[in-house]
């Protein structure tokens, strides 16, 4: 009994892997006894191109062949395997379903790519069966199929050296030297065009594939010649395949098939899908180009640049709908899936093109809504409405205005989100609100401070000028009364702002500190005038200058004590006692001793029980001021005594009474002579008039009162 090939279907037409059949085949051909020393030869090519016939003659197998008398149809479905008879080493032959079959049609090419990739993955030699007249053609020569299979194989499996044997069927008169270069060039172009892994970017085709070409005559017309050349070709498979066994040979064929079936890269479009893709894309691009130059669109775009356009959304939706409808009519007869996908791309491209104009419209809406808020807020505040309530109402009205405008600009075909623009409007409103609030609060603060300054500055100045024992008590009463009134009015004004409690308390505290600051400033100003109050006095001749000097110095010391510190806290202090005991002398001789004795009490920069911030004049400064005061008042006193003496002399300008009596007795004769001679009387009268006029003109009498 002769050797059998045990032909078995490995993968059926639906892609199911025949696990049990493979196990029976392995046992039947004793493949386990071969170890790793066996070869795998497969064949692929167009349907009804004589693949099974070639294998049966080449390897003595019994694959089912097409009956030419019954017409051309699909004979092999899926993948069949058999053992080559009489070939060493052991050779497993795979017969693949033909490509480009009428039964599967142009929409189902995925299975063809899957079985082709499976053959490349496990075969040592892949025979590519093709008609001689198909050389140089795209589809008939299986170029797209090989390109896809090569690319996926490089990604899914570790590349190994495989022989690609192109078998040219029904050879014509064209010499092989012209046919073979064309095939090799096609394979090289396919290899160069595929996307390779990073590690094999620059790898040459020859490192992975041995490309060989052979030709056979027509089986039907030259059967004997065909058989002779097949017999010659058979000799190439004897001991010509070195036992190369890459690691994936040890991997289950079932696992390899599972990996291939799960890969989606092989699910490429059929011919009509490719045509639909090209045409629908051309139509879509043409519509986009026309949209860009559409007069209505350009007019709308220009109008938007100038300002808000009423009915923007409706107008733009009509323009877009016109071109989308044209696309639908022109692409109606192409593949639905492609047509829909390209329409979505057209719609997306058109929307992207007009989106900037839509954004500009949103900007106009935002600007208008913000302007409305500003105007409404201004009018509300002028009408006397509370600030916080006015802001709430105006904000609500402004956002409502924006939302209504948004309905007018909404484009039917788009689902654009305007929330960011609305959020920007809300931030702008908040920013303007904060600005107006700050200005209003500053105005309220300035008004309250102005009223406080007016209420405190003048009265405090008067109280300090008339400094006495109760000066600071009066100032404290004035401060409490005015600050209480100011805080009450200020709090009432702030209520409409609905401020946070912390902010409210801070503003009240600042107002109180301002009031203290007004008093402190006036106190410091008046403290600088503490030496002036005893210098502007007019001395007369009836005053006791020394008694007045002592009284003035005592009053000046009290004044210095008043101005030494700010006393708004109603706390007792010992400043006046310290100054009196240290600076007020008991007699002229004790001046030097008194100042020296005050060194210990006044040799400090702070007062006892007085905080530094309330100190107006430090003890050391008081000591210096008192020295200056003493030196300046000594000169003033000397001037006052001189003025008093001059006044006394000017008041007694007539001669003594006895001199007047003597003049009357001794000048009696001369007086009688004047009476008897009227000319002398007239001359004397004129002389008196002239002299009196000169005295009045030059104020001579006043000058004489200050001494000769």
UniProtKB/TrEMBL annotation:
Provide the Gene Ontology terms for cellular component: endoplasmic reticulum
User: Per its UniProt record, what InterPro entries does this chain match?
Assistant: G_GB1_RHD3_dom (IPR030386), P-loop_NTPase (IPR027417), RHD3/Sey1 (IPR008803), Sey1/RHD3-like_3HB (IPR046758)
State if GTP-binding is listed as a keyword: yes
Keywords, comma-separated and alphabetical: Endoplasmic reticulum, GTP-binding, Hydrolase, Membrane, Nucleotide-binding, Transmembrane, Transmembrane helix
Which interval of the chain is the signal sequence?
none
Q: What GO molecular function annotations does the UniProt record carry, in alphabetical order?
A: GTP binding; GTPase activity
Q: Which family does it belong to?
A: Belongs to the TRAFAC class dynamin-like GTPase superfamily. GB1/RHD3 GTPase family.
PANTHER family, sorted:
PROTEIN ROOT HAIR DEFECTIVE 3 HOMOLOG 2, PROTEIN SEY1
Q: Tell me what this protein is called.
A: Protein ROOT HAIR DEFECTIVE 1
